[in-house]
Design a protein that fits this description.
Layout (H helix, E strand, L loop, with lengths): L7 E5 L3 H13 L3 E5 L2 H11 L3 E5 L7 H8 L9 E6 L4 H9 L4 E4 L4 H20 L3 E4 L2 E4 L4 E4 L2 E3 L3 H12 L5 E2 H9 L8 H14 L4 E4 L3 E4 L3
Parallel strand pairs: 1-2, 1-3, 3-4, 4-5
Antiparallel strand pairs: 6-7, 7-8, 8-9, 10-12, 11-12
Helix pairs in contact: 2-3, 6-7, 6-8
Amino acid sequence: MVQSGSQKILVVDDEEPILELLRYNLEKEGYQVATATNGLLAVEKAKDFLPDLILMDIMMPEMDGVEACSQIRKIPELKNTFIIFLTARSEEYSEVAAFEVGADDYITKPIKPRALTSRLQAILRRDLKKADEAGQLVFGDLVIDRTSYTITLSGKEMVLTKKEFELLFYLAQHPNIVFSRDELLQKIWGLDVYVLARTVDVHVRKIREKIGDPFIVTVKGVGYKFNQR
């Protein structure tokens, strides 16, 4: 298994004290750390650094975190990179906007370094475990390959974010079984991640936009299921 010393984290914030605090604590844990002070620099740094995980503030000059996340998600080499927002804003619309552009998690300031590093370790360990669990699911023209984290539909590769992929893969592993939003939040985001139930709706809508409507079915008042035809 890959150790933390070979994992890379990009920290993006316009407040230098926060950057230095996070850099110090993350490097102490053995991570390779790069920093950027705005969204524009973050996009350029991410292209060169190719981080495993990005911690990014939302409110920044030049380019905010939401737009930077949107740009980063268009870079093929970074499609499996975790993007976690750091923000002092707690309004629901900020969280929804973050997940709309492909964020994986959302942490509210003030930051507690020890709690943050523990959370990141759990996320990255879970990711490495999943990467070791090879598997391919085939439903007609739809191929979901966990080995390469790719989705192929009618021979064309579709680009999904990491959480979109994990949600689709989980549902497809249990075809025709209905899961509530809370169950999916626990299975895909984990018990230590505090996100809205609406997050599941956002990700399902994004998946449908990319692979079409027939695969994931809404069961009114209950949740979602993968439709094995």
